Amino acid sequence: MSTTDFTALSGLELMRWVQSVRSTEPDVPSIGRLLGMRFDEVEHGRIVISLDTRPDFANPLGTVHGGIAATLLDSAMGCAVHTTLPAGVGFTTLELKVNYIRAAHTGGQTLTAEGNVIHAGRRTATAEGKVLDDQGKLIAHATTTCLIIGGSD
């Protein structure tokens, strides 16, 4: 693992580092590694993350468990918020509201989540997100409120 001083990186710099590490250091423990997430796009206020479904993601009905979509959304929206933060400032999710639209299949379907910041304030931030399948069909959409941690009050 890198000896990068993460506290010296802005949120955008950190997310770009995470994006680069996914391709060069696949053994770094994380929820992203566990689920096979790929950071496809990293911009100020916007993140795109994808993963391929697999049988391990199945719910009792045999489709992808809703928690996979919720985790994708929480990650994409939270990381989008993080891209707006200065060095030494973090966040945590205060609220996550997910609307499920249709089931996803467990057989290697690519799910892509996009998170976009709506508001980035000193103490809270809000974002919206959506998950699409590989046919461009909406699987779920969400909003979040994040608490900004650190920095000056």
UniProtKB/TrEMBL annotation:
Q: Which UniProt keywords apply?
A: Hydrolase
Domain Thioesterase: where?
Answer: 62-139
What Pfam families does its record include? 4HBT
- A GO molecular function held by the record: hydrolase activity
The source's superkingdom equals Bacteria
Q: What is its EC number?
A: 3.1.2.-
Q: What is this protein called?
A: PaaI family thioesterase
Q: Which InterPro entries match?
A: HotDog_dom_sf (IPR029069), PAAI_dom (IPR003736), Thioestr_dom (IPR006683)
